[in-house]
Amino acid sequence: MAACVALGAAFAGPASAQQSTQPSPTLDAIRARGALVCGISTGVAGFALPDSQGNWRGLDIDLCRGLAAAIFNDPAKLRLVPLATSTRFTALGSGEIDVLIRVSTMTMLRDTTLGLRATMPYFYDGHGFMVRADAGIQRVRDLAGATICLQQGTTNEQITADYFRSINAEFRPVVFERADQAIGALAAGRCDSFGLDAGALAALRSTMANPGDWVVLPERFSKEPYGAYVRRGDDNWFDIVRWFTNAVIEAEEQGITSANAEEIRRTAANPNTRRLLGVTPELGQALKLDSAWAYNVVRTLGNYGEMYERNMGPNTPVGLARGPNNIWTNGGLLYALPMR
């Protein structure tokens, strides 16, 4: 056993030292300009949408702000860049933005062929269809021959085509660049249904004149885990975005909230809690961030559950139950990787 440990240390030591000295061009650029540049959607309620004062609100916005807090201890050191679905990955690859947090499904081909990396899921969804509540449609099979609104450049185009091909039925697609254009066409009667991720459909329904006139059918046809994307080749920046996402989930698992973070940091004896909140510095050192980076996020934005409930929960217009987006101990899919 001792020989194995010694051999492991011999391999781990130089590699770890080499990794710790690698510069992060993205992090260096962010610090030099004094702000994080975060790519977001052009407007999806619950994820990213301007309020009546023009301030952006939503889960994606809170994650962007939280990432700025992790870097600068200031969530306001942030520039948001709304991006169309068709241009979001190009904007990231060209360096227009530092990170894409924009209702973007993590898929193998996106992760391996675009020069980008998907970091970690922060929202689990699945493809669904919305129809008029009085249309008499009980299941998606009833939409054979229907006109279906779809959003250009999404995985939903292919999923819809694959489904109708699988049941040997025709449908008529009407494709729009933006979700608000598609939902407008649906409301105007140009389409019989709108095919999109179910969470996004629920969010869009909340913005319609009469949300009760519409229903999201219960069937799901895909796995749509949303994750932040970064450019390939900057391992330190990938690590920061990945472990930032992990940290807000870990905070909820540990019961650390915006209201109690300061007290817990001051009194915690649990080594995992002390590491997470920066009482001991190793996590910050590993990411080249301040030791209190995760504490700064939670005390200003809250944990994942607080972000979700504030933007999408049952007491919001979106009114979406946690479901798979609950932590694993409450029956959901969110599971923080060990932060040690």
From TrEMBL:
Family classification: Belongs to the bacterial solute-binding protein 3 family.
Organism from which the protein derives: Neoroseomonas terrae
InterPro entries named among the record's database cross-references: Bact_solute-bind_prot3 (IPR051455), SBP_3_CS (IPR018313), Solute-binding_3/MltF_N (IPR001638)
Signal sequence bounds: 1-17
Domain Solute-binding protein family 3/N-terminal: 35-264
Pfam families from the UniProt entry: SBP_bac_3
Protein name per its UniProtKB record: Amino acid ABC transporter substrate-binding protein
UniProt keyword list: Signal, Transport
SUPFAM superfamilies recorded: Periplasmic binding protein-like II (SSF53850)
